[in-house]
Amino acid sequence: MARKASRPEDGARQSTIREVAEHAGVSVATVSRILSGNYPASPATRSRVMRAVKELDYVANVHARALAGSKHKSIAIIVNSVISPHYAHVAQGVQTMAAEAGRLCQIGTTGGDAERELDMVRFMREQHPEAVILVGNVNADDEYRSRMSRYAHALEAIGSRLVLCGRPPLGPDVPAVVVECDYTGGAFAATSHLLSAGHRRILFLGQRPGYTTAEARIAGYRKALAAHGVPNDPDLEVDGTFERHEGYRMTRERLDAGTPDFTAVFACNDQIAAGARQALLERGLGVPDDVSMVGFDDLPPAMDIDLTTIYQPHEELGRTAVRLALEHAENGGPPPRTVLGTHLVIRGSVRPLLPAQR
Amino acid sequence: MARKASRPEDGARQSTIREVAEHAGVSVATVSRILSGNYPASPATRSRVMRAVKELDYVANVHARALAGSKHKSIAIIVNSVISPHYAHVAQGVQTMAAEAGRLCQIGTTGGDAERELDMVRFMREQHPEAVILVGNVNADDEYRSRMSRYAHALEAIGSRLVLCGRPPLGPDVPAVVVECDYTGGAFAATSHLLSAGHRRILFLGQRPGYTTAEARIAGYRKALAAHGVPNDPDLEVDGTFERHEGYRMTRERLDAGTPDFTAVFACNDQIAAGARQALLERGLGVPDDVSMVGFDDLPPAMDIDLTTIYQPHEELGRTAVRLALEHAENGGPPPRTVLGTHLVIRGSVRPLLPAQR
DNA sequence: ATTGTTTCCGTAACCGTTTCAAGGATTTCC
DNA sequence: GGAAATCCTTGAAACGGTTACGGAAACAAT
């Protein structure tokens, strides 16, 4: 109904603000103002416009709106993978908060590849979102830093902000909101827990030189060892990605190499722990009877395998990222920065080691 | 560099196509054509334009492009939750395929609420994506059907299409691409597997009247019972959502009610199975020693708890949804429809029942 | 040399909003 | 009663692209 006859088309079209204006007998400017924000308007006009909107089932075109107002209510999030539980939870937090704030949530994945992350940021920039949230694990080399720095400034130029979520700042020259999580503290607590139970040789699963989230954990691990006066044996730090099958592989290879030279395991996340556990069980080693274990994340697999682990506030990381970005967009000033904490969740995968066994 | 002096601002701006044109000494039309599609242009002009683009670090404004070309390269996906493994995998498939096709991926969650799903569709419509993909489990009442039908037509009107992924068509009057998955067949295979192992009293966990994904499964369950000549006992069909804690609750309540009157469990997904298993273990019932179990999904928890289950092609569902939508946008014609299969994955959670135990 | 084809490129009219300067209608004040 | 202030409302210029249409140049054919 009430389609402009002057523009005949085969398919129906979305009604425009002009049609609404015409229908209500006012100008487009009036419709625009009434619809966006509560601008002074006489009650009569307002209700006429509202009725026209209803009758035509009018929905504003966001692209026209974004173009004219140079602002698109949307938040972009870039993660390694949607499947990985940690990222999924962070994404859920972002999504929830974005929805609450009436923002569209745009998502992109990188597979953990720094190059693809950069391309994704570039791609997202075209969309002019209010914020681009970068989550997680990436190997930041110099080339990466310089490109990301360029992009950060480009984003700034279009009034969008970069948010680093669960990772440290990229440097003073890279404008970004930062929402960190205390991975070093978490790893310290995990390792201390094992040390307090008498363990001395603790396998570290998930070392990844260059990757901030792994490096933060190993720093905590080493710090705990030092605090307990236990010498650090680099041979106990095993390289691998944060996936289940990698946890399995790392442990398997270790066991294949000879008799176990460790009594406990600290896994960089629960997935790794689950894989490691499987490898141990296949070799007839029980958890915690033969080997104690602490994971990281406190996500689904942890409960199923009764894993003592470190909780990190996944969803809150996402929510905070959105909140701070939006606040910063509102208030301006230097980009805010915050650090969220972690804590130990005790289940049944750690057993005290008798003095004789040490 | 080369900023228009006539428009002085505090912050830097993104360069426009006009600036690129000026910089390259050609018209904006030429730049536009060279950038989008391979329009005939002399190599000299092309390279001049390309160089200008590089030098100005020009990125087209998608909103302007969408407005002028009335097309935005984007795909919207609406799921219950990003956290739920099944949805996460489907979303991963969508995201992957969308990225391959150079599309932006927009995501929204509903928490399994039909009302919120409708609102989300409405919201997504404002963004003019090429497709809106609806995944999963929702209670479709008449009110829902009628609103969704309206939205489907509204989407059609703006050249966008609705995609139903992992759920049946809504009716002949609702234009939509449909990518189903054979849940009935999967449930039939699962139940048959248990029946063949001699089980007769099989608990069905996850009944949800009105929810298509649950109803498809129970249809398969009943069909298998009938095929084996086993009478259907409605009392064995337990209501609950598809979450781990619900699996725990349903089983717990069952066990609390008296001595177990079943020898096997079919869980509507692996999460439910994991929760059920925990409840059984807490009561001293082993899987599969005391109770056999088959799940659905073949996702992470399945491997950890050595669960025999039904595989469904999660990511492929997502990929297919995007592919069909894009193909349909290209070719037109009636909306395509397809059904993907499932298959049994045998692990160690089912044990044959001795004839004496039946 | 004229005409017809091709090929490449430019002009300008949109796309659907927002927003600003300015206009008309009331009310308020002296 | 007229000027000033106030309140709503409007026309029109952006915003940054795409694209229909047409012109100019280059080349081939007559």
Description of the structure:
The structure is a homodimer of 358-residue chains. Chain A is an alpha/beta fold. The first copy, chain A, folds into three domains: 17-64, 434 Repressor (Amino-terminal Domain) (Orthogonal Bundle); 70-181 and 314-341, 3-Layer(aba) Sandwich (Rossmann fold); 183-312, Rossmann fold, CATH 3.40.50. Chain A contains 13 helices and twelve strands. Chain A has helices at 17-24, 28-35, 43-56, 62-69, 85-100, 114-125, 142-157, 183-196, 212-227, 244-256, 270-282, 301-304, 314-331; strands at residues 74-79, 104-109, 131-135, 161-165, 177-181, 202-207, 237-239, 264-267, 292-297, 308-311, 337-340, 343-345. In chain A, the strands form two sheets. Chain A has a six-stranded parallel sheet with strand order 2-1-3-4-5-11, sandwiched between helices. Chain A has a six-stranded mixed sheet with strand order 7-6-8-9-10-12, sandwiched between helices. In chain A, strand 6, helix 9 and strand 7 (237-239) form a beta-alpha-beta unit. In chain A, helix 1 crosses helix 2, helix 1 (17-24) crosses helix 3 and helix 10 (244-256) packs parallel to helix 11. The longest helix of chain A is centred in the C-terminal third of the chain and has 18 residues, at 314-331. The termini of chain A are far apart. Chain B binds a DNA duplex (30 and 30 nucleotides) through helix 2 and helix 4.
